[in-house]
Write the structure tokens for this entry.
Amino acid sequence: MAKVFNWQLGRDMDYPYEGSRPERQFCMVMDTNKCIACQTCTIACKSTWTWGPGQEYMLWNNIETKPYGFYPTGWDVQVLERLGPQDWQGDTYAGKTIFEAAETGEVAVNWQPDQADWNHPNLGEDEPTGVAGEETYIPDIPHADMWMYYLQRICNHCTYPACLAACPRQAIYKRDEDGIVLIDQDRCRGYQECVAACPYKKSMFNIETRVSEKCIGCYPKIEQGLQTQCTTVCIGRLRLTDFVNTPDKADARNPADFLIHTRKVALPIYPQLGLEPNVYYIPPIHVPPKYLHQMFGPGVEEAIETYKNAKDDDELLGALMLFGSTEKIIYSFDVRGGVARGYDRKGDELVAVPLREPELVRDFSYPTTLADGTPATGYRHNT
Ligand code: SF4
Ligand code: SF4
């Protein structure tokens, strides 16, 4: 295997191919704290891309209730159990990635879900941790100890994709212009090695066409400078589609780089798996750090503290306010005079969003008599 540098692990790691970074890397930032699981994103994706024969079960975008929701069933638990110890020494990962822990003859630690595992996209929906009391519907544990949250999931368009590495047909490729990972439908022979190898289970098999498919990052929109369908329809305005640089090339004027590298409030999902995934999450502020540490790696506590202080940090607040403010991709932003502005690739202004809505306190008084001259009753007079 070749040695490649994975900045999310803070070290080199083994990967079947030589490292080659695209010209620009598609990314998404999700603020988990704002999701209401309305599934508008899921339906927007489904009605755009997966409405055909054999795609009935497919949700390229899905929202699951953590810790019990999965699509497919147990996807993350399955791979975490197979991976072994996942220790971090500070910001450096000391355990093995799925490529390094693979058994002889395998490219990566993998497992193949059964068809039944795909049947229930969010089993355990809205179930918090903790057990409700048997004799009363009031849970017998303090509410403060109960938690759940919504996790928004698409393909991570990984820098080191396991789907690509495992494909015996070289049918999967990563585009140089935007880093989006695609499956060549003509080259694919439906061996499903990508389905087994992707630890996020975002490559899916079409039983009608007999080839595999996956989230395409809405590339026809990206090519036109537009954000993805799931981003633009999001009710909670919690998604940002953008491009991310490596930390050494981070540009703090770019909203994704600012959130990921400068303020470090957005973290990759299961970075220890070793794929350098390019969907980043602002962690939920109410969930036990131990759980979050496993899912988002080191830096969770700091990310939450920084996020909580957003109200006193105009730049951070500004970057967050730009989520869902325009369908166009924001290449750079600034905050001046209490207004966050987003700009396109040429530097032209796309959108301006006030950090705080103006508050108007109306002058008011109650009438002492009604229109017909009778005294008004039931009003409290302004003094
Ligand atoms: S999330 Fe899975 S399907 Fe998507 S690029 Fe990474 S390995 Fe491939
Ligand atoms: S549209 Fe937004 S708020 Fe609704 S489920 Fe999707 S990510 Fe969550």
Summary: Residues 35-41, 63, 152, 234-236, 238 surround iron/sulfur cluster (ligand 2) (CB under 6 Å). The first strand starts at residue 2 and ends at 6. The chain has a mean pLDDT of 93. The CA atoms of residues 365 and 383 lie 9 Å apart.
